[in-house]
């Protein structure tokens, strides 16, 4: 099992809850509605892809010979950091240039999902 990715998935889930709660309770009235929407999008994608990472780790544990699950997992990790991280930073600072990083995270997510499909195919 990709124990490092399992630990990262668990910590990522913890962070998604903590960051989401901070946004819901700590940011109200401190950032405008548009930036709050950006922040919430970051949290939403953070959660979705943490669950996808967990899925890749757990399914990959049943097919240890298929290394593509692990590769997909690392792309999910990169996507969370780049996509959600850039949206959090943008929402908290208002520095719009940070939004230029977001599509790189999106590309990582797309690559991860394709790699997950390839891994599933190899597992047949």
Describe this structure in words.
The chain is an all-alpha fold and 124 residues long. The protein has one domain (3-122). 81% of the residues lie in helices and 0% in strands. The chain contains four helices and no strands. The longest helix has 30 residues, at 33-62. The radius of gyration is 16 Å and the shape is elongated. The relative contact order is 0.16.
Radius of gyration: 16 Å
Could you tell me how far the N terminus lies from the C terminus, measured between alpha carbons in angstroms? Answer: 19 Å
Number of E-type strands: 0
Helix % is over 70%
Provide mean pLDDT, rounded.
97
List its salient traits.
single chain; 124 residues; mainly alpha; elongated; membrane
What's the structural blueprint in terms of helices and strands?
Layout: H1 3-26, H2 33-62, H3 68-93, H4 102-122
Helix pairs in contact: 1-2, 2-3, 3-4
Offer a quick outline of the entry:
This protein has 124 residues and is an all-alpha fold. Helix content is 81%, strand content 0%. The protein has one domain.
């Amino acid at each position: 099992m990709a124990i490092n990715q399992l630990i990262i998935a668990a910590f990522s889930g913890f962070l998604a809850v903590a960051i989401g709660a901070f946004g819901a309770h700590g940011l109200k009235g401190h950032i405008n509605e548009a930036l709050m929407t950006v922040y919430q999008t970051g949290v939403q994608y953070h959660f979705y892809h943490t669950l996808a990472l967990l899925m890749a780790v757990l399914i990959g544990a049943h097919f240890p010979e298929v290394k593509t699950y692990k590769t997909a997992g690392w792309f999910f990790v990169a996507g969370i950091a780049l996509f959600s991280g850039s949206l959090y930073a943008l929402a908290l600072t208002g520095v719009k240039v940070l939004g230029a990083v977001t599509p790189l995270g999106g590309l990582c997510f797309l690559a991860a999902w394709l790699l997950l499909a390839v891994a599933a195919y190899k597992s047949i």
